[in-house]
Design a protein that fits this description.
By secondary structure, the protein is of the alpha+beta class. It has 2 domains: about 90 residues, no CATH class; about 90 residues, no CATH class. It has 9 helices and 7 strands. The chain has a 5-stranded antiparallel sheet, covered by helices on one side.
C-alpha cells in the first residue's frame, strides 16, 4: 500500500467533532484520531510532496469552512496543521509542525428526531448532510467558489451580492423565484438596497445614488438570511440530483 498522507485540521473543536461523527467514512473524510482531527482524501495519494498536499488540503478546507458557516453557523475557518506520512507499520513522519489550535466552547445544534413510516425513530444532526454537500461542491466549480466566498467572518452588501451572482451563473434569478427559494419582490428589494447609498451607506455596491432609494430597505441581517437560504436550496438540489437521493432541507 505504501505511505499515505495525513493532514491535521486546526479549527473549532465543536464543529470538527460534529463533522467527524458524520464524515468518518466519506471521501473527503474527517476523523477523530486520539483527539486530533484529520482530513483524508484519495486526492492526496496522487500528490508527491507536502507542499502540494498542503495546498490541496487548504483549498478543500476553505470550501468545508464555508459549508460549516452556512449550515452549522460556524464562526471560524479551518486551517491545515501538521502533515504526516503514515507508513504501513503505522510510523508517522512529521513534515509540518502543527499550528496553535483554536479553542472555543460551543453547544451543539440540536439532534432532530425523525419517525419513519415503520414507527422507528432515528436521530439526525445537521452535520450529517455536510458530506453530501461537500461532495457536490467538489464537483461544481461555482459551488466551490460560493463556499470560499461564504467563508468570511463578516459579509457586507458587496460580498452578499457577489454570492448571489455566483448562484445566478447556474440558476437565473427568475428560476430562483419560480422554484420557491425566494420571491421576485425580495430579490428586487435586496438588489435595490445593496445598490443604494442612502440605504446601505458606505457599504453599498455603488459610490453614488443612481436611483430613488428603496421605500422599505432590507437590513443586512435580512440580506444574509436571504442569500444563505438561496445557497442552501441550490446546494441541496444539486446534491440530491448528483446522488439520486434526498438531502435534508432543514439545514
Amino acid at each position: 500500500m505504501g505511505a499515505r498522507w495525513l493532514v491535521e485540521i486546526v479549527g473549532d473543536r465543536a464543529d470538527l467533532d460534529m463533522l467527524a461523527r458524520s464524515m468518518s467514512g466519506t471521501d473527503p473524510s474527517v476523523t477523530d484520531e486520539g483527539g486530533k482531527f484529520v482530513l483524508g482524501s484519495e486526492a492526496f495519494s496522487k500528490l508527491a510532496d507536502a507542499r502540494a498536499v498542503s495546498e490541496t488540503a487548504r483549498a478543500m478546507l476553505s470550501v468545508l469552512s464555508g459549508l460549516v458557516r452556512l449550515t452549522l453557523q460556524g464562526r471560524s475557518s479551518f486551517d491545515v496543521g501538521s502533515i504526516y506520512r503514515l507508513h504501513d507499520d503505522r510510523r508517522r513522519d512529521p513534515i509540518v509542525v502543527v499550528k496553535t489550535e483554536h479553542l472555543e466552547i460551543r453547544s451543539y445544534p440540536p439532534i432532530v428526531i425523525q419517525q419513519r413510516s415503520d414507527g422507528t425513530r432515528v436521530g439526525r444532526s445537521r452535520a450529517d448532510d455536510v458530506a453530501g454537500l461537500f461532495g457536490a461542491a467538489g464537483r461544481n466549480l461555482a459551488m466551490s467558489k460560493a463556499m470560499r466566498l461564504r467563508n468570511q467572518a463578516n459579509l457586507g452588501w458587496v460580498e452578499l451580492y457577489r454570492l448571489l451572482e455566483v448562484v445566478a451563473t447556474e440558476i437565473p434569478l427568475a428560476d430562483m423565484a419560480a422554484n420557491g427559494w425566494t420571491t421576485k419582490a425580495e430579490l428586487k428589494r435586496f438588489q435595490h438596497t445593496a445598490n443604494s447609498v442612502a440605504a446601505a451607506g458606505d457599504l453599498a455596491r455603488h459610490g453614488a445614488e443612481t436611483t430613488r432609494p428603496p421605500a422599505s430597505p432590507m437590513s443586512l441581517a435580512e440580506a444574509q438570511g436571504l442569500v444563505d437560504k438561496i445557497l442552501r436550496h441550490w446546494m441541496i438540489a444539486a446534491a440530491a440530483q448528483s446522488r439520486g437521493g434526498a438531502v435534508d432541507a432543514s439545514i
